[in-house]
Sequence to fold (229 residues):
Amino acid sequence: MLGTEPRLIDDYVKTGFIRFQFRHQLNYGKVSELASQAAECAGDQKKFFAMRDTLFANQAKVVTPGDASLLKALAQDLKLDSAQFANCLDSQKYLAKVKAQDDARRAAGWTRRPTFDINGIRVEGNVAYDILKNAIDRALKQ
Amino acid sequence: MTMLRHTRFEPAIARLALMAVLIAACAQPASAPAVPPTPAQTSAATAAVTPTPTPSPGVSEFMTPEGYWTLGKVDAKVLFVDSSDFG
Fold:
């Protein structure tokens, strides 16, 4: 998604055709929970998508279970208020929220990672830009 | 009184010395910086972290009433949902 997303943002989000929404999946226990909470805590400071992109860019090395130190360092690099971010993450204030989102997508049968939904058109897996573009263009014509 | 004796080797030695000086001069960079560059200040924990550009400049993010973070215009015709995992 990192490769195709900038094109989607340029072609469809900046031009006002689509609104791009993220929903959490938690497939890897504490690792997923902690990272998703980090994104939500960054959202408190209006940097949800900045943290999301940083997490994906560093996916292989972001967290070890139970260790939030790197996430806090990433928040610093994003110029977030470190104390506010740390308090948010340590308090787990968003744990129930990200779990609820994960429960909802499981209930909807979204089992692939990633799963896209484009006005009801489901696209699963890491697909080429043109596949997403075709689905968006179809939705725009409806 | 010390006698300086010229030998037939002296011109050759002088040429060799001159060549050594010229070679050494050529080996120096033409415009070596006066001060070595200072590496960017980065926290130790993120030294190996892949830098990412600030995403989507000029596009605003907002949270829907249902609690989903969303990028773009509130009234955009198409809702594009990305469901994924950071882990």
